[in-house]
Specification:
Elements: H1 3-11, E1 31-32, H2 36-42, E2 52-54, E3 59-60, H3 64-70, E4 74-78, E5 81-82, E6 92-94, E7 102-104, E8 110-112, E9 118-120, E10 125-127, H4 155-164, H5 169-185, E11 189-192, H6 211-217, H7 219-244, E12 250-255, H8 268-274, H9 276-289, E13 294-298, H10 307-312, E14 317-319, H11 330-337, E15 342-344, H12 353-356, H13 359-373, E16 379-380, H14 393-403
Parallel strand pairs: 4-11, 11-12, 12-13, 13-14, 14-15, 15-16
Antiparallel strand pairs: 1-3, 2-3, 4-5, 6-7, 8-9, 9-10
Helix pairs in contact: 2-14, 4-7, 5-7, 7-9, 13-14
Length: 407
């Protein structure tokens, strides 16, 4: 069974020869660029500068020999680059203020202060010398004061902006060429993370401290906003999906974090009224254009209360299955969607067991979670979100090798 066959079999709710595994198919299933060189060394592989394809979260684009060593079954196209084959012309050396010899696409966008703080000034984000990621005040999301008006967009201008950002024929052709070459190069499943991610989220248009309030106070505005957005995304899908469908297996169609550690950010009623109809329309259009393409949602936190509506929204895959949040175990999560949607991730408690447990405790939990989530198919193994800089490589290796054991 090839890696692609293994992934697609699992996503069709059949039992593959072993659990499919992923590292870095999208920007919430990856590994810190600071942790990556340690993992490479622990695997006994030759040293190389990590390619940092997400220079906000500082994520390394995994190399093929690392995927081979960990038994991973997925490669990605994300941000116009891929790890299905080498693209040396797209990568250039930098060192992040002397802290990390690495390769990035645009080294000219970084500068370093005397105290070691590294800046990406065009985004006004910084990585202090004590940090492993870039950030900004309130993560770039302002706090709304009680006496401030809601920051509503001019929707006519918003529509014009979306039209100005629409995919050009040249951009479509570049994407198609990249997908075709990746497909011809590898028998791994191909995850497409560009261009199809609906620009709808409970934390959008003002951020976590603003947009949930807008949803409560201005639902008619939100309906119009989301209608404009999804009409634009449908147009993008019609341009792109028929062209890449012969080459791509999974596509990111939404990234929308609805959960805190213990509850939802907004009510299920808000999701049903203001989000579900638009997600369902987007997924339906992608499925109409490419019936075999699996649609992927990323949504962190305690989202157990939304699982039924996520299935109803038409998502084939839900990531990351953060079952430690919200008081429902992985068994309950599995039963909620069994045979109707697949989970991608959730293989170990990333906030407790992985950082604080022993290697043996990591192995034990991975074994138990995989036996449950992998039952009857519908599961691709990954961590709950990214592997952080502080995670020991021995634990990373243990979790992947345990996930590869026969269930």
């Amino acid at each position: 069974m090839t890696s692609r066959e293994r992934v697609l079999r699992a996503l069709s709710f059949q039992t593959p020869d072993r659990l499919p595994r992923d590292l870095g198919a999208m920007r919430s299933t990856g590994i810190s660029a600071f942790a990556y060189p340690k993992l490479v060394a622990a695997l006994g592989l030759p040293y190389r500068r990590p390619r940092v394809h997400d220079t906000h979260q500082m994520l390394a684009l995994p190399d093929l020999d690392v995927l081979d060593a960990l038994g991973c079954d997925v490669v990605t196209i994300d941000g116009g680059v891929t790890n299905a084959f080498e693209e040396p012309e797209k990568w250039h050396d930098t060192d992040f203020g002397g802290r990390l010899p690495a390769r990035v696409q645009h080294p000219e966008t970084f500068s370093t202060d005397a105290d070691g703080t590294v800046w990406q000034r065009q985004w006004n984000i910084q990585m202090p010398a004590s940090s492993f990621v870039f950030n900004s005040e309130h993560n770039g999301q302002p706090v709304l004061g009680m006496d401030q008006p809601l920051p509503l967009l001019d929707l006519k201008q918003y529509k014009r902006d979306l039209e100005a950002w629409a995919l050009t024929d040249e951009q479509v052709q570049v994407a198609v060429d990249l997908c075709r070459r990746a497909r011809e190069t590898t028998d791994r499943a191909l995850f497409y993370a560009d261009h199809l991610n609906a620009r709808i989220a409970i934390t959008a248009h003002g951020g976590l401290g603003v947009f949930p309030v807008v949803c409560l106070l201005e639902p008619d505005y939100v309906h119009e906003l989301h209608g404009i957005t999804i009409e634009h995304m449908a147009g993008e899908a019609r341009k792109l999906v028929p062209e890449i469908a012969p080459y791509v297996d999974i596509a990111l169609t939404c990234g929308d974090d609805w959960g805190t550690q213990s509850s939802l950010i907004a009510s299920p009623a808000t999701f049903r009224e203001l989000f579900l109809p638009y997600y369902r329309r987007h997924n339906a259009e992608v499925h109409r254009l490419a019936p075999g393409l699996k649609t992927f949602l990323h949504s962190c936190g305690a989202i157990y209360g939304l699982l039924e509506m996520l299935v109803e929204s038409g998502f084939d895959i839900i990531n990351p299955a953060q079952w430690p949040a919200g008081g429902h175990g992985y068994e309950a999560w599995k039963e909620k969607v069994r045979g109707r949607a697949s989970f991608w991730g959730g293989g170990v408690d990333t906030q407790h067991t992985l950082p604080s447990g022993t290697v043996e405790e990591v192995e034990q939990e991975v074994r138990q979670v995989c036996a449950c989530l992998g039952g009857d198919g519908g599961y691709v193994f990954n961590n709950i979100h990214n592997l952080l800089a502080e995670v020991a490589p021995e634990k990373v290796i243990a979790m992947y090798r345990t996930a590869g054991e026969p269930c």
